[in-house]
Automatic annotation (TrEMBL):
GO molecular function: ATP binding; ATP hydrolysis activity
Domain ABC transporter residues, every copy: 19-245
Family: Belongs to the ABC transporter superfamily.
Annotated source species: Cryptosporangium aurantiacum
Name used for this protein in its record: ABC-2 type transport system ATP-binding protein
Keywords from the named record: ATP-binding, Nucleotide-binding, Transport
SUPFAM superfamilies noted in UniProt: P-loop containing nucleoside triphosphate hydrolases
Cross-referenced InterPro entries: AAA+_ATPase, ABC_transporter-like_ATP-bd, ABC_transporter-like_CS, P-loop_NTPase
PROSITE patterns, alphabetized: ABC_TRANSPORTER_1, ABC_TRANSPORTER_2
Length: 318
């Protein structure tokens, strides 16, 4: 199976690739976590989208040189990442773990990291990193007293204290409230715009499309699709789909919907209606005006199978 590569109408020149993943697989015993993946990650923000267990964490750890590929190779600016500690001068990784040293303040954690990197001015670098993530006066409080989002920001500050060219983040928005999420998105965007390579993983399409110029979709260890956010959104919504509807007059609604090009079948299933749509996006746009024109009130519109896995399964089957 080959990944779907999709592009949009934008004519931006492709960004310079800095992370090259060449035919990389990684297995643990019988489990193939990453299966023959090749991709180039250039400057700007890239989202690595996939359901739980897709292999995103494994791929990020391979990119960061923490795991050896079972097959294939990964380079950062033409240098191998495996068994090459020199890459850590230009790479930062934010892992998806809660066990940040709670007994330290964020400032202490970030400064210790700055010293590990042997930065000439660890204190100034710490101040800069703390300011970038907007921890403000909380930076001097113990991390144990932080909210989940603040702990995440402390980890991000530690990962970028040495001003790395490449920042990798594993599910960075997990557990953040909407304001914290927006702030981190703005930070990642600023870093991407300043010429850094930022790659973050997520299982939420909305999250990824808000902040990424480019999206790589992983399913069951494989690269299923890559492209910009509009193209990936189209790929995920222009697909057959079933909906369960409830309305003031299911029979009249069914008749009206059958006239739509994007509807391929209707079943009256009291107490509702099962609609088979050829195209998810087109149907959700056409439904409200069609119901209104038929004088029917919509009470409920439910996707019949809207698990993220079903969307991804469609992508790899397609
Ligand atoms: N150290 C390990 N030993 C055995 N199996 C592993 C190991 N690490 C990962 N796996 C397996 O590899 C597969 C991919 O896991 P991975 O954590 O990379 O996925 P993910 O996309 O990051 O998912 P999640 O968001 O749930 O962490 C899973 O089946 C997982 O159980």
């Amino acid at each position: 199976m080959s990944a779907t590569t999709v592009s949009d109408t934008r004519s931006d020149a492709p960004a310079k690739a800095v992370l090259e993943i060449n035919g990389v697989s990684r297995w643990f015993g019988n489990v193939v976590a990453v299966n023959d993946i090749s991709m180039s990650i250039g400057t700007g923000v890239t989202g690595l989208l996939g359901p739980n267990g897709a292999g995103k964490t494994t791929l990020l750890h391979l990119m960061a040189g923490l795991l050896q590929p079972s097959r294939g190779s990964i380079t950062l600016a033409d240098a191998p990442v495996w068994r090459n500690p020199a890459i850590y001068a230009s790479l930062g990784l934010v892992v998806d773990r809660e066990d940040t040293y709670g007994f330290l303040s964020a400032r202490e954690l970030v400064e210790a990291t700055a010293k590990l990197h042997k930065l000439p001015q660890p204190r100034a670098a710490t101040d800069r990193a703390i300011a970038m993530v907007g921890l403000g006066s909380a930076a001097d409080r113990r991390i144990a007293t932080y909210s989940k989002g603040m702990r995440q920001r402390a980890r991000v500050a530690a990962a970028l204290v040495h001003d790395p060219a490449v920042l990798l983040l594993d599910e960075p928005f997990n557990g953040m409230d909407p304001r914290q999420r927006l702030e981190l998105m703005e930070l990642l965007q600023r870093m991407g715009e300043s010429g850094r390579t930022v790659l973050f993983s997520s299982h939420i399409l909305e999250e990824v499309e808000q902040v990424s110029q480019s999206i790589q979709v992983m399913v069951a260890g494989r690269l299923a699709a890559s492209g910009d956010h509009r193209a990936i959104r189209r790929l995920m919504t222009q697909r057959p789909h079933e909906f369960r509807l409830a309305s003031s007059d299911d029979r009249a609604l069914g008749v009206a919907l059958l006239g739509l090009e994007c509807v391929s079948g209707i079943e009256l299933e009291p107490p509702g209606l099962l609609v088979r749509a050829r195209d998810y996006g087109a149907f959700t746009l056409a439904l409200p005006p069609t119901a209104r024109a038929a004088g029917v009130r919509l009470y409920q519109v439910l996707p019949a199978d809207e698990s993220l896995e079903s969307v991804f399964s469609y992508l790899i089957a397609g």
